[in-house]
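To make this tangible, we now present a fold written out as tokens:
***
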Amino acid sequence: MQLGFVTAILDTFSFEEVLQFAAAEGFECVEAMCWPEGGPDRRYGGVRHIAVEDMSQAQADDINARCAKHGVSISGLGYYSNPLADSAEEAVHSLAHLRKVIAAAPLLGLEIVNGFVGANTKLSLDDNMQRFADIWPDVVRYAEDRGVKIAIENCPMLFPNTWPFGMNLARTPAIWRRMFEIIPSPNFGLNYDPSHLVMMLMDPIKPIREFGDRIFHAHAKDMRADKDSLDDVGALAPPMQRCLAKIPGYGDVHWGLWVGALTDVGFDGAVCIEIEDEAFTETLEGRKQSLRISRNVLRPLIA
């Protein structure tokens, strides 16, 4: 495995500065954010460390040369939009840019693109599954033709205004099974993040045994379920009213068991730390420190 981080947390850095920091702190890789200009006005969204629009081979070669100079690789390209959005304009824009991200990956010598399946918050699960079946097979074929694997993060994007369905269909094992029946392609899989299962009061390790061959990439983010808050607001409240996103080691994920389960199923890809812990995000130094602490928790487990 390789230990890295998601570049969104260093949103004020240039890509060169991200690589410098990663090299200085002993990270092997980074997941590079590739949002279009004018991306969504939401926290951790819209970060643009690599511009994929009309990327030339010369531009890709320059990016790879900078990575080689610092000894830090790119684990995958990240673009977490909503291709099944309620708004037709948003859905069309998301799909169009996703194709640009997919097209840029082979120029960079990469095979992983990370993102969301998306969801229409106004439709039922079955109706969303039908939209998924109508739209996503073509996206996956586009990726297959370019030797690219699409890794879908299992983040439900549950906020007060998107509760209870969320903005990303691919949130539970029951739904993953249906998705993989519809798209059995070996180029379609998961960017596995245990924190979202903890948030939904689920086992974050058990699914690895069943879906190990579908895990192409992994996020290391922790989550703490607050029993007092749960007792106060109940399970029907939006999840982040009873949970806190934390850095690895500060929440409920047993990281030794998690990494051990990944090794059991033969996963040898990238584990990228994702920072959303508000105890660290207010200042740049706090964000840097959150990456260092997370690294120190995970480094003994990921050699």
The radius of gyration is 18 Å.
